[in-house]
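Contributing new records

If you add data, match the layout below exactly. Sequence lines come first and carry their own label; structure lines follow with theirs. Keep one chain per record. Anything else will be rejected by the validation script.
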Amino acid sequence: VRPETKIKLKNHFWHPKKVLIHLNGTPGSAQALEPALQILAKVHAEITLLHIPGQDEKPAEEGALTAPYYQDYQQYEWPSWSQEFCKRFFEILKEENNNDENITLTLSVSQGEPADEIIKCAKNIDADFIAIAWHGKLGPLHAQVLKKIIIHTPCPIMLVRIR
């Protein structure tokens, strides 16, 4: 949490209600976000999942789910892709709680530079909290997207290291 970040308190406690989770569609990042999901299910948070597919990129790891490349009938492809994306994500959540009624989920897909899109989405939804899976490196040549998000984000961030 940056010192100038304004945190909304309710009865002297912080309860994140609007949360942004950047999920790149890989099993590793979904697994890493388990701690954040455990917390968010307990506070009945509204979660916006943000997926920013890479342009012409191969999946980062086996089992990744990237955005569909539609030809003619996107009205059929996007809903089924969205259901599959959330189903894969929610398996982790259901294992922990066996109850998904505490969650309000919105899936958003964006295109562009990831840091800019995450910051823009956080501002648009008035996020109280952002959860991001992270590879654990902050050296000079690493985590350029994450560093930009840390500098410009309007709210606290939880970094969860990918195993």
